[in-house]
Amino acid sequence: MATERIQQAVNALKTTRVRMTPQRHAILEYLFESMSHPTADEIYKALEGKFPNMSVATVYNNLRVFKDVGIVKELTYGDSSSRFDCVTTEHYHVICEECEKIVDFHYPGLDEVETLAEHVTGFQIESHRMEIYGTCDECLEKKKH
Ligand SMILES: [Zn+2]
Ligand SMILES: [Zn+2]
């Protein structure tokens, strides 16, 4: 499953003539295999052993390239650094308030909210974002002990 999606991402990059480098490939692999909405820093830490010459800036630049091609979505949460999501189809996020883990939650898009917001405010609505907060199963388990 991950391999297939990595291949699709590689193909998408090819059509835009973005050169595939071992680093780029490793970042893609990490994104699709971890499915964890990592920050650039987390990816850097996971891969620095393999690529000692790579910097956080390199990781960040690569993520920007992926974003431009439409392979990843950037999620910003206030002041903390951006997280990157390799699932670009519509979905919502459930966020653990203890460890900040983000889990995908598939639920039909709340299009009515956008329609109603348009009616009520007169805005031309482009998108919406909904986040659900709680405590993840792992953190709940830790609390018990
Ligand atoms: Zn947690
Ligand atoms: Zn997601």
From TrEMBL:
Similarity field: Belongs to the Fur family.
Pfam families: FUR
CDD domains: Fur_like
InterPro entries xref list: FUR (IPR002481), Fur_C (IPR043135), WH-like_DNA-bd_sf (IPR036388), WH_DNA-bd_sf (IPR036390)
Keyword Transcription regulation (UniProt): yes
Stated name of the protein: Peroxide-responsive transcriptional repressor PerR
Keyword annotations from UniProtKB, A to Z: DNA-binding, Repressor, Transcription, Transcription regulation, Zinc
Cell cycle listed as a keyword: no
